[in-house]
Write a structure and sequence with these properties.
The protein is built from no helices and six strands. It has a six-stranded antiparallel beta sheet with strand order 1-2-3-4-5-6, with no helix packed on it. Strand 2 and strand 3 form a beta hairpin. It is elongated. The two termini are 23 Å apart.
């Protein structure tokens, strides 16, 4: 079951939902207004691949109302010196 959190703000309703990809678990946050819904950020854990064994915890940010994200912020990489694998 997918959980949904809604918080009313002066800018509209913030909505947080679990992402649908089990290989990239994370949380979508969007803003719902009278003129529609806009993706704001996706925080997700990415798996390592055969070519790249590093797992990451990252945020994809949409600055504009486009389909593609505009920025990527990496919070953690694993394995990496000083990072813990949870």
């Amino acid at each position: 079951m997918q959980q949904r959190i809604e918080i009313q703000t002066v800018f509209g309703k913030l909505i947080a939902e679990q992402s649908g990809d089990p290989h990239y678990p994370g949380i979508h946050i969007c803003l719902e207004r009278n003129d529609g819904e806009r993706q704001l950020v996706l925080v997700e854990s990415t798996p390592g691949t055969p070519c790249e064994s590093t797992h990451t915890l990252r945020a994809l940010v949409w600055k504009n109302n486009f389909e593609e994200y505009s920025d990527v912020f990496t919070f953690y990489k694993w394995p990496e010196k000083g990072a813990e694998h949870v």
